[in-house]
Amino acid sequence: MNANDQTAQGEPATKAARPRIPLDEIRAQVEQCRRCPLCDGRTNTVFGVGNPNARVLIVGEAPGKNEDLQGEPFVGAAGKYLNELLAIAGLVREDVFIANVLKCRPPSNRDPRPEEIELCAPYLREQTRTINPEYIVTLGNFATKFILKTDVGITRLRGTLQQAGRFRVFPIFHPAAALYDGKKREALENDFVTLGELLGTRKA
Ligand code: URA
Q: How many CA atoms lie within 13 A of 109 on its CB side?
């Protein structure tokens, strides 16, 4: 069995690997998506942005208000903080690819619902297959539980290297949860030091 035939969720390998779908094609599918009622409230879908050949795929939860308006992930306060965190690891946004579990904003930023996650999941799965990163960095509980198929919470998993199929997974706190919590900030910043060390990108 070739490890490359596994998905991030560790699904069984198929005999012949399916061809990877170009990101533009996946984006076009997302833009037209009407699989769940979130499509009725959206201004824009938020497909994701960054280097299509990134070594690191960063996975957040769902677009917020600013992301919905601009069609880009992590453009609000949490996004500004994410840029600072990336710098700790010796990275800039253009080095990584940033996407979310959900491509449309839940009303009033409520938590994603299981059925929404299930319906939206194929898009992230295809993005992951196409980008084929070395590392998936999951931000917060929703992304971590989705990628690792676990019920273990982020507080226990953060900063520990995990494996999902052929991908190394590095769960960390969501930057929005850490913005106003000094302890989480410290943990998050330490985890980005570790990420930079794992990647060999951290400047001394
Ligand atoms: N929080 C997320 O999880 N994703 C975004 O794109 C913005 C905020």
A: 7
Give per-residue pLDDT as tens, 24-76.
Answer: 999 999 999 999 999 999 999 999 999 999 999 999 999 999 999 999 999 99
- In CATH, what number is assigned to the domain containing residue 160? 3.40.470.10
Q: Using a 6 Å CB cutoff, which residues line ligand 1? A: 60-64, 67, 73-74, 78, 100, 176
- The residue written with tokens 């299509």 in the block is 52
Please give the tally of structural domains in the chain: 1
Indicate whether 143 pLDDT > 80: yes
Q: Which domain holds residue 41?
A: 19-199
Global pTM value: 0.92
In a domain, 12, yes or no: no
The two structure tokens encoding residue 94? 């253009």
